[in-house]
Amino acid sequence: MAAIAALTPPVGVALLFWFVMRAVLRADRSEREAMAALDRAEAERARAAGERPPSSSAAQGEVR
Q1: In whole angstroms, what is the distance from residue 49 CA to residue 62 CA?
Q2: Would you say the pTM of this structure is higher than 0.90?
Q3: CB-based contacts of 39: which residues, under 8 Å, 6+ apart?
């Protein structure tokens, strides 16, 4: 019984860390997908208007 009591806090912290990291990584993936969709939409609008499409977000000053 003492072993279970001793292992409960580290296991709880590990699970909390896992959930937080999973949420951060999912949010990052969702943001990257949204940015890619926005870049595609901007390029499509530029092509439809006969303009030169933006090359990438990095050309606009964003650091990857």
Answers
A1: 25
A2: no
A3: 54, 56, 57
